[in-house]
Amino acid sequence: MAFTELLCALDPDPPVLGPAGCPVADAVAAVLAAARAVVRRWGEPVCGLSPWELAGAVSGGRLLQSGSTVDSINTSCPGEPDLGPEPSPPTIFTVSREGVRQ
After folding, report:
1. 35-60 pLDDT tens trace
2. Which of 11, 37, 101, 102 has the fewest CB atoms inside 10 Å of its own CB, making it the most exposed?
């Protein structure tokens, strides 16, 4: 969806993307159409991105990551965080010609 939105945002008369045969082929067609729209808008030398680098940038890298859909969430209790016991004061060492003293 992000690629068809990008295509429509960049091209005043975007091409109609017909079904390509399967969901993966549909997605590839949308990525390529968006990449062509970027090149038409800003030119290839300005962009310098391959269609797949553009796909990674538009999707925030999510298109290129593994199929895992695990999201991390914060499950800590609200309020003050438990930071554990108070840390002990630092040990101060003095270094001189006579040696190291605590």
Report:
1. 888 888 887 755 677 888 888 888 87
2. 102
Boundaries of domain holding 14: 2-64
In a domain, 42, yes or no: yes
DSSP letters, 16-84, are: P----SSHHHHHHHHHHHHHHHHHHHH-HHHH---HHHHHHHHTTTGGGS-S--------PPSSS----
Q: For 61-73, give one letter per residue: b (16+ CB within 10 A) or e.
A: eeeeeeeeeeeee
CA–CA gap between residue 94 and residue 76 (Å, rounded): 42
